[in-house]
Design a protein that fits this description.
disordered N terminus; 640 residues; binds magnesium ion; binds adenosine-5'-triphosphate; Rossmann fold; Helicase, Ruva Protein, domain 3; 4 domains; alpha/beta
Length: 640
């Protein structure tokens, strides 16, 4: 093995961009294979053709068409039994056939340039592809082992399948696509046989074309943990900064996560995973021809003296990259993840704001849109409001906007179509509902209360949509979001979330002197935030983390349950909520003009989007001639 010293690295391996298939090992191998195949065909056809020519030229041609006489009385039953045996054997053979679909590079219309917005993953993909393309150079120059298995892990629609297709197209090798569930069979042992034949096909394709990429989608269907192999992969001794789990607009208490045994921890997973483990190691085993040559050499060597022994032909390892994609890598069998198998794990996440902007540019280039959407500011604004969207969701959003445009009778989508589509995607379709005048006014007041609380307490939040049109179970709603992608929340921000939630109930109390069932969802949200602050974030006078309590057979409760189940925790939550409600009520009482202005605008227009909301608020504020009492300065102080 050559020692690679600084400065002597092969330029192929040092390349920063994607290597050219034609000059890389894969392309050179494929060309060599093609020439060898041509020679074989020439020999296979040439010899019989020369013989036939010889016979023809010497005046003794074959009479190819003189078939022997067939006695159908004898042949019919023979053929019947052959057909029966054929059906019996065929069923068995077919049940163990590889379920893949083979795509040739030219059949795939996705290239790496079509994978946008996920640069960190793309960089790693290019590195892996280069190692795949230059695998022989890598092994020869540096003694490295080729990368065999890559695990694509990530939520639905984050681009795993899309990226794998682009990889196959760029690598210029056959792409054997199989969905993990298609390996499953009701015949005993057929699943393992299908896996064997899939790997056989992979090796065959790789031998034929200098390399092959296998892709198994939804891998967890067959790669689940075997019995007794449950193992936590969480690295010990790592302290991390907790993110925003569950603190977005929709509250998912972080403590609600219950540990469930992973998919298929049953005996059935055993043979299938074992077969996968064996097959993952099979890329270095000799092919049928190599085995035949090897055994012939062995037999001849038995007859030869020691110093005349023949060398066995070297075993060439198949250049295969196997990509498995899953939404949940934590449930895969640990043995599948060890080095040499799926040792490379690529996590696909929702793109950041820059990524979303790139995706918008990419998709809008193909979808008809009004000139308004060519404005970079408009695109930036859409990228900003789509935090948490996956690439597939962004594509879906624009498709939905196109549908809205068609519904309007237009042929191009506008910004308003995108906004309506976003509302439909995030909240649901608007359902025209005939509220009584009293209810309509009540709902408008409630939503205006939320909005004024948000505008006064949390100017950092962007007011997106205010509506009293019923969508799914929401009679009305205020959608507000962060201006930038954020990954943490401060105490002030969390307090503000509680105040915004209380805005609706306080408005009902001030204007109607009574409360309705409307705010029940708001109270649940506020309780969740308060429980997080008290029991998980150490923000409310106690540093004890209730989420550190282990779930047990008798206390299987989420974080909210744990905090409220403890009398001291409950008291802290109650106090926090009562304080914030009192604060919000005072704030609204001192700014009734804002709530009333918004309520009237809502009653008039039913739905306000983006700047329409702030326009109403700013006009009402200006009309008050600056007499408004601004309480935003002391928000954190009064919360104490
Ligand atoms: N990075 C990207 N750039 C451009 N388009 C993308 C990207 N990621 C995804 N898409 C689009 O989203 C669609 C869905 O993505 P894909 O099928 O790859 O998702 P996935 O991660 O495999 O999801 P699942 O886990 O549900 O199988 C693709 O067909 C493609 O049009
Ligand atoms: Mg997929």
């Amino acid at each position: 093995m050559a020692q690679a010293t600084a400065g002597t690295l092969d330029p192929m391996l040092a390349s920063a961009g994607l290597l050219s298939v034609h000059t890389a090992d894969v392309g050179l191998n494929r060309e060599a294979q093609r020439l060898r195949r041509l020679r074989t065909v020439a020999v296979a056809l040439g010899i019989p053709a020369s013989y036939l020519w010889y016979r023809a030229l010497t005046g003794r041609p074959f009479d190819v068409f003189a078939l022997p006489e067939i006695d159908w009385v004898v042949m019919a039953p023979v053929m019947f039994f052959i057909a029966l045996i054929g059906i019996a054997v065929g069923t068995q053979v077919l049940s163990g056939r590889s379920p893949h679909t083979l795509f040739r590079p030219e059949q795939i219309d996705v290239r790496l340039s079509d994978v946008v917005g996920i640069d960190p993953v793309k960089d790693e993909v290019v590195r892996s592809l280069n190692l795949f393309l230059a695998h022989e150079t890598f092994a020869r120059e540096m003694g490295g082992r080729p990368r065999r298995g890559i695990l694509f892990e990530g939520g639905p629609g984050t681009g795993k399948t899309h990226t794998a297709k682009a990889m196959a197209a760029e690598a210029g090798v056959p792409f054997l696509f199989a969905s993990a569930s298609s390996f499953q069979s009701s015949f005993y042992g057929a699943t393992a046989r299908k896996i064997r034949s899939y790997f056989k096909e992979l090796r065959r394709a790789a031998a034929r074309e200098g390399g092959a990429i296998g892709f198994i989608d939804e891998f967890d269907a067959i790669g689940g943990t075997r019995n007794g192999m449950e193992m936590t992969a969480a690295p010990a001794g790592i302290s991390g900064c907790g993110g925003l789990t569950g603190l977005g607009m929709e509250f998912h208490p972080a403590g609600a996560r219950t540990v469930q045994s992973a998919f298929g921890t049953s005996d059935l997973a055993g043979p299938v995973v074992n077969e996968l483990l064996v097959q993952m190691q099979s890329f270095d085993t000799p092919t049928g021809l190599e085995r035949l040559r090897g055994s012939l050499t062995d037999k001849i060597n038995l007859l030869l003296p020691a110093h005349r022994q023949l060398q066995k032909p070297p075993v060439r390892s198949a250049n295969i990259m196997l990509i498995a994609s899953t939404n949940r890598a934590d449930g895969l069998d640990p043995a599948l993840m060890r080095p040499g198998r799926f040792d490379r794990r690529l996590t696909f996440e929702e793109p950041g704001k820059t990524g979303r902007r790139e995706l918008l540019d990419h998709f809008l280039a193909r979808k008809s849109h009004t000139p308004e959407l060519d404005d970079p500011e408009q695109r930036d604004a859409i990228a900003a409001v789509t935090q948490g969207y996956t690439p597939a969701m962004i594509e879906g959003l624009l498709d939905e906007a196109l549908v809205n445009a068609v519904r309007r009778g237009a042929t191009a989508m506008s910004r308003a179509d995108v906004e309506t589509a976003r509302l439909t995607t995030e909240v649901g379709m608007g359902q025209p509902t005939a509220y009584t005048p009293h209810e309509r006014r009540l709902i408008a007041t409630h939503e205006a209360g939320h909005t004024v609380a948000a505008w006064l307490c949390a100017p950092e939040r962007r007011l997106e949509v205010l509506t009293i049109i019923k969508r799914r179970s929401a009679l009305g709603l205020l959608a507000h979001g962060d201006r930038e992608d954020v990954y943490t929340r401060s105490r002030t921000e969390m307090i503000n979330m509680i105040r915004i939630a209380f805005g609706g109930q306080c408005a009902e109390e001030i204007w109607y002197g009574d409360v309705t069932t409307g705010p029940s969802g708001d109270l649940s949200y506020a309780t969740n935030v308060a429980a997080q602050m008290v029991g998980a974030c150490g923000m409310e006078g106690t540093l004890v983390s209730y989420s550190a309590i282990q779930n047990g057979a008798l206390n299987d409760s989420n974080l909210v349950g744990r905090v409220l189940g403890d009398s001291e925790g409950r008291e802290r939550v109650e106090r926090l909520l009562a304080e914030q409600k009192a604060y919000t009520k005072r704030l609204l009482e001192e700014n009734t003009h804002l709530v009333e202005a918004l309520r009237d605008a809502l009653l008039d227009r039913s739905e306000l989007i983006g700047h329409e909301i702030t326009d109403v608020l700013e006009t009402a504020q200006a009309m008050r001639n600056g007499t408004v009492i601004d309480l935003t300065e002391d928000t954190s102080v009064s919360a104490e």
